[in-house]
From TrEMBL, chain A:
This is ATP synthase subunit c. It comes from Desulfovibrio ferrophilus. Residues 37-99 form the V-ATPase proteolipid subunit C-like domain. The lineage of its organism: Bacteria, Pseudomonadati, Thermodesulfobacteriota, Desulfovibrionia, Desulfovibrionales. GO terms for molecular function: lipid binding; proton-transporting ATP synthase activity, rotational mechanism. It is found in: Cell membrane.
Automatic annotation (TrEMBL), chain B:
It holds the Pfam family ATP-synt_I. GO terms for cellular component: plasma membrane. Its main location: membrane. It is a multi-pass membrane protein. Keywords: Cell membrane, Membrane, Transmembrane, Transmembrane helix. InterPro entries: ATP_synth_I. The keyword Glycoprotein does not apply. This is ATP synthase I chain. It is found in: Cell membrane.
Length: 106, 141
């Protein structure tokens, strides 16, 4: 499974770089690759961050239910963790917006 | 400045931020944003990147405020936590995306300044951690 994943990822990477290298200016293939890249990148970032936040919250709720006295500490740590996770999603969003609308290489 | 910080804290308490540590975190973030916005309004005319920095800080604070408010409520009542978290996360992300699109594409904002503004949450957390560590040292001594 790992081997297959590595081959697939390498193929995608090589294909993306090849079209970019052969393009003299913004060719339709390059634009298509950029759109695919940003869409898939944002999907992975948002899904990963969403799942991470949900799991963090689940663990915090369970921790609070087991030990209500520690809810204050759990809450602060949870908020910090969620804020960092959300920042990651926002950074991914900025990178994707840049790729789509303000790409310096196209 | 102390009066403004106290006012912010009182306002947060009225809005349901009962837990002290969370209130301090949100208060610090809002105070930092206020300072950044003031600097942006004053210096932004000469150096427009300060406007972008302030816009990033406002976006980060907005996200942080609603995130903290939701977490506060969920841990008190524990109702539909994970579903609510996912819906709110995507809702905030979409709104942030629209705002960032408007700033980057329509407004031509500097991306580095925007990212610096968005990273003010990290600064707030660092300040909070440093003050906490200091407090601990004093108590232990």
């Amino acid at each position: 499974m790992r081997k297959f994943l590595m081959i697939a990822l390498n193929t995608v990477a090589l294909l993306s770089i090849a079209s970019l290298a052969f393009a003299s200016d913004a060719a339709p293939e390059v634009l298509g690759n950029i759109m695919w890249g940003s869409a898939i990148g944002m999907a992975i970032a948002a899904a990963g961050c969403g799942i991470g936040q949900g799991l963090g919250l689940k663990a915090a709720c369970e921790g609070t239910a087991r030990n209500p006295e520690a809810s204050g500490k759990i809450q602060v740590m949870l908020i910090l963790g969620l804020a960092f996770v959300e920042s990651l999603a926002i950074y991914a969003l900025v990178v994707n917006l840049l790729l789509l609308f303000a790409n310096p290489f196209v | 400045m102390t009066r403004i910080i106290q006012k912010i804290e009182a306002g947060l308490y009225r809005r349901g931020f009962v837990h002290e540590e969370t209130r301090i975190l949100v208060r610090n973030q809002l105070a930092l944003t206020l300072v950044v916005v003031l600097i942006g309004c004053i210096g932004g005319w000469a150096w427009p990147r300060l406007f972008d920095f302030a816009a990033g800080a406002v976006l980060a604070s907005w996200n942080f405020y609603f995130l903290s408010k939701f977490v506060h409520r969920v841990l008190e009542k524990q109702q539909a936590a994970v579903t609510g978290m996912l819906f709110r996360f995507y809702g905030r992300l979409i709104l942030t995306g629209v705002a960032l699109y408007a700033l980057i594409v329509m407004g031509g904002s500097s991306v580095i300044a925007l990212l610096a503004g968005l990273s003010t949450v990290v600064v707030t957390v660092l300040i909070w951690a440093v003050t906490r560590m200091r407090g601990k040292n004093i108590k232990e001594a």
